[in-house]
Amino acid sequence: MVRIPKLAGISVGAALFSAITVIYGCNIAPTGEQTPANSPASMPSPALSPTATHGGHPPAAHEPSPQAAGSAALVLVRRLDGINQHEGGPGVVGERFGIFAISDDMDRDGVADLIIGAPRADVGGRPGSNEGMVNVLSGAALLKGAQLKDAILYQLKGEPTVDGTGEFGFRQSIATADFNRDGYPDLVVGAWLADPLVAGVAQRDAGTVFVFNGAALLRGASQDSALLYRLDGEPGSRLGRPAYTVGDINRDGTPDIFVGAHRASPKGIKNAGSGYLISGADFSILHRFDGLAPNDFLGRSVMAIGDLNRDGYPDLAVGASQGDGGQAGGIPPGPGYVNVYSGRDYSLMHRLAPPSDEPAGSFGQTSIYVSKPEEGVDFDGDGVPDVVVGSPEARAGLRGPTGKEDFPRTGSVYVYSGADFSLIRRFNGERGSSLAVIGTPSHESPQSSSPSGNVGDVFGDAVAIVPDMDGDGVPEIVVGAPRGDGMGADNSYPVELTDSGYAKIYSGRQGALLLRIDGAGTGTNMGHHVLSVGDLDKDGSPDLLIGSDLTDYGGIDAGSLYWYSIRYTKVVE
């Protein structure tokens, strides 16, 4: 394996932002399966690639169908880099800026703003304290070319913890909605490893969720005075991941909040996990969903799926990423399951489980953000919203030289019919991440651990829904694989970038691959976060955020967030 430095020729201390705008793309297939990504025959010379601007990494391969119906492209609007707010010198883990981000018009100026998490930032004056930070940046200022420090509307800071891992603003733990009905979005932030104090005693890894008054913060109020609500978990429960708004579940006119605590022990069942549905109107707990057995980890994920049973109330899908449905009592961990709950009475409507031949856990580990949670997304055109499930540790049926399934953590994403819960489609990662033996093509080399100690692409670790790109009227699915291996300098498969990460965009109706975006260099974690955020730059096309939280542009592992505009051109015959 050829290893390329994370900056791929760009020195540490590069500009805080890259203002380069590049269009790149590939053909869109109208129908059919794609040539497998790990087949050398599937590597034609591409057009300009995303990685041409990601720190100088050369063009990445794509997987077009022989016959194209149109072309898709991404325009790089901005690259936002963390500034590594650590003072501990070499070896200190970076702030991981861009590990999660959302958008909303926080200042009501008509331009959507960016809310970006940096969960390992040091904000308490102590190097390595890792309290975490959430940055709220003016979209109008960013579009005018302002640097990060000049675009800040306000910043929120995490609380000190015993072990320095509160992770305030971590993945799937930031959301917005106007809870107090003052016309300005308020902000939900989770810190799933927080150690809140009770009678002066730290409750280790209890986790905390905060709701802040957005208008007050704009006026310069302190975090304490702007706090609308706070919920602390029980010790060890890790409350706050996810912390999402899920639409108006109880139909009182205000969006509600789902908060997971996957290591909670309801009714004394250790690590069965819980999920809390919280009223956005008065922050009362509407319902608590509990796991069935020890180590189910229920509450690990959530997806707002719309009204499946047509009773007038939007429903929810809640993941239990290590559950086995109570069959083995959680020992060993099960493959996971996803419960579909009624939004009307919170009863269990259906339980989804992975294929019987899929032994790996993590089915239901990934929260899926939906821009219109009360409507859901209908992929198969039957008029009923469907359910998407991420399973980043799935083996995906790939087999190694011994004939055994030697590729754990390859990852899969499943799409289920909301009408009858049948499997519509499954997307798989490419293979296990590997290190090549010298002189041996990597796709023939023995299995080995990646630099991070993980094996596999972890495809499905981030999943989002993006607006229609191929002109068929159906939204598309974007999947991140932060441990995937990108293509190398000669654009040939044997030369790869270990753990550079990638994101793929698939047709929601046909399942065809539309675009692939590779990371900048070895270990950059491209695709650890993906999210469609509407038309931020007002160019008439929807935008896409992709996190690469281990880039080094702003310092070691400072992280970056890539902001793209999605373009689609249909071929007229």
Structural overview:
Helices cover 3% and strands 32% of the residues. It has 573 residues and is mainly beta. Strands 1, 2, 3, 32, 33 and 34 form a six-stranded antiparallel β-sheet that branches. A hairpin with an 8-residue loop joins strand 8 and strand 9 (186-191). It is globular, with a radius of gyration of 22 Å. The two termini are 44 Å apart.
Task: List descriptors.
573 residues; six-stranded antiparallel β-sheet; globular; mainly beta; 34 strands; 4 helices; single chain
Structure summarized in a few sentences:
The protein is mainly beta and 573 residues long.
Catalogue the unreliable spans. Answer: 1-69, 86-92, 432-454, 488-494
Instruction: Give the percentage of residues in beta strands.
Output: 25-35%
Count of helix runs: 4
Query: What is the radius of gyration?
Result: 22 Å
Report how far the terminal alpha carbons are from each other. Answer: 44 Å
**Tally of strands:** 34
Mean pLDDT: 79
SSE topology:
Elements: E1 17-18, E2 23-28, E3 70-81, E4 100-104, E5 113-118, E6 133-137, H1 139-143, H2 148-151, E7 152-157, E8 174-177, E9 186-191, E10 197-198, E11 201-202, E12 208-212, H3 214-218, H4 223-226, E13 227-232, E14 239-245, E15 257-261, E16 274-278, E17 285-290, E18 298-306, E19 315-320, E20 337-341, E21 348-352, E22 368-369, E23 387-391, E24 412-416, E25 423-428, E26 462-466, E27 476-481, E28 486-487, E29 496-497, E30 502-506, E31 513-518, E32 526-532, E33 543-548, E34 560-570
Parallel strand pairs: 22-26
Antiparallel strand pairs: 1-3, 2-3, 3-34, 4-5, 5-6, 6-7, 8-9, 9-12, 10-11, 12-13, 14-15, 15-16, 16-17, 18-19, 19-20, 20-21, 23-24, 24-25, 26-27, 27-30, 28-29, 30-31, 32-33, 33-34
